[in-house]
Amino acid sequence: MMKIKPEVLAPAGDPECLEAALMFGADAVYLAKKSFGMRSAPDNFSHEDLISACRKAHALGRKIYLTCNTLPRNRELSDLKEFAADAEEAGVDAYIVSDIGVMSLLKEYTPDIAVHISTQAGVVNYASAREFYRMGAERVVLARELSLDEIKAIRDNTPPELEIETFVHGAMCVSFSGRCLLSQYLTGRDANRGECAQPCRWGYSLMEKTRSGEYFPIFEDDGGTYILNAKDLCMIEYLDELSAAGVSSFKIEGRAKSSYYVSVVTNAYRSAVDFLSENPQKMLPDWIRNEVYKVSHREYSTGFFYPDNPPSQNFNDGGYIRNYDVAGIVESCEDGFITIRQRNRFFRGDMLEALIPGREPFEIPMDEILDTSGEPVEAANKAYEIYKIKSSHTLPKGAILRLRKGE
Q1: What is the topology classification, in CATH, of domain 324-404?
Q2: Is CATH 3.90.1180.10 what the domain over 7-175+230-301 is classified as, yes or no?
Q3: Of 315, 272, 273, 314, which is closest to residue 297 (Cα–Cα)?
Q4: Chain segment 229-278, per-residue pLDDT in tens
Q5: What stretch(es) of the chain map to CATH 2.40.30.10?
Q6: End-to-end alpha carbon distance in the chain
Q7: Rounded Cα distance, 257 and 21, in Å
Q8: 148-184: b or e for each residue (b if 16 or more CB lie within 10 Å)?
């Protein structure tokens, strides 16, 4: 039973993902500017984007958390003052910080902006959590390696005003809470500065030093082994237990993921939290649990939360399971037609599934498709082209139509 309704915290790697997170029910969104964020691959947010993001979120009563969780070197510290001034001007609600020096400078420059301690700081005990609170942190994002019992012990031994956040969904790093040197050693890209090349997802073999060029698989598989490739985390079925342990914010990983991923996973956890809050001690409906399987994902596990069921690696491959494609995004509905912007091709006679916020998905048959000139066509096969679909359903702008692969 959820005594206090936890926050659903969604990622955004660009403004499109921000829109998706807000539309599909995130209470708060975490994102990065062009610097000091742990994901450099996404487009991230310019200063103007950040101002717009805060304005949109605040108009809906939501929050924006700005990541500043890299480990900056001496030469970069002089840039923090401008970074903080921009954050204050934009109106961000909190920083996410891992370095105590950075924390002290941000508190000096912008004392009115809350500080959340990143999972990169590796908080695994209540002494560390209490000390960060004493230093001015309002929240700690706990290390991913903790069990539910350990989280409860931290909650029981820290001030109730200190908020506790944990990851509940997304990619897992083979290193301790993401503090990894493997990428830097192998590629020169520093994971602790947002540039991880994800070498933990690569296939590996052994080579005996006197037999140069002769590779031996670590176990019997012609492709070698993906010995470092962690399964993805998924706690959709255990949110009530996380809440009971004292977690006040459920964090979804994925600032490098697509807007479709953000939409679907945010919607699933939003729907789950709402359902469990209103229906204590009841099981989640199948449709909510099934949603997390309709995005691109690796095999799922429950991470380190349950010591009797520890996480394991996916030794077979480093790829993803992907069963659905986005057919199109709804632009408008009128006169018995749904107008969409196409993303992946579909055909007359296909059955698409509609996803709108907070509702069980439902099917819409593609009985009639019109192109931009209003002429009937057999296929919507031009990316980002506008098409009209005959339907009696009325869908909101931004709703998603998707097609199960193979259908």
Answers
A1: Elongation Factor Tu (Ef-tu); domain 3 (2.40.30)
A2: no
A3: 314
A4: 678 899 999 999 999 999 999 999 998 899 999 999 999 999 999 999 99
A5: 324-404
A6: 39
A7: 12
A8: bebbbbbbeebeeebbbbbbbbbbbbbbebbbbebbb
